[in-house]
Design goal:
The structure is a single chain. With 136 residues, the chain is an alpha+beta fold. It has a domain of 91 residues: GIY-YIG endonuclease (3-Layer(aba) Sandwich). It is built from 5 helices and 3 strands; from the N terminus they run ββααβααα.
Length: 136
């Protein structure tokens, strides 16, 4: 996961969700408040354990301005994607990004809709497979 910095007062700072390609060709997903600093840390060997033996890393995809909760959920969802789906994100598949964001981001309990029965907060969580790219 991305490096954390001390929390400041005021609104929740935004995060960047990113994918890097390691020197061995593998892909690593992470989050960061300051992407340039995080990539520099990865390339110094001070980043994630996974990337330390696979240096240097290069950013191949990123999405900025994510709230911290959404960024963590998206990082987790991206790490669970197949390599082919990660490559689709890198290639700019906006449909996949929108679907991933819709499925991965669960709002906090205070923002979930109440059900008609009992008024308990519920979240819509779907685990169906992501849409596949059309065959050539």
């Amino acid at each position: 996961m991305g490096a954390a910095t001390p929390r400041t007062s005021g609104p929740d700072p935004t995060w960047t969700v990113y994918l890097v390609r390691c020197a061995d060709g593998s892909l690593y997903a992470g989050i960061a408040r300051d992407l340039a600093a995080r990539i520099a840390a990865h390339n110094r060997g001070a980043g994630a354990k996974y990337t330390r033996g696979r240096l240097p890393v290069v950013v191949v995809w990123q999405r900025r301005r994510q709230p911290s909760r959404a960024a963590r959920q998206l990082e987790h969802a991206i790490k669970a994607l197949t390599r082919a789906d990660k490559e689709r994100l890198i290639a700019g598949d906006e449909r996949l990004w929108r679907e991933l964001r819709r499925r991965a981001v669960v709002p906090p309990a205070s923002q979930r809709s109440s059900s008609a029965r009992g008024g308990r907060a519920t979240a819509r969580v779907t685990r169906a497979p992501l849409a596949r790219a059309p065959s050539p």
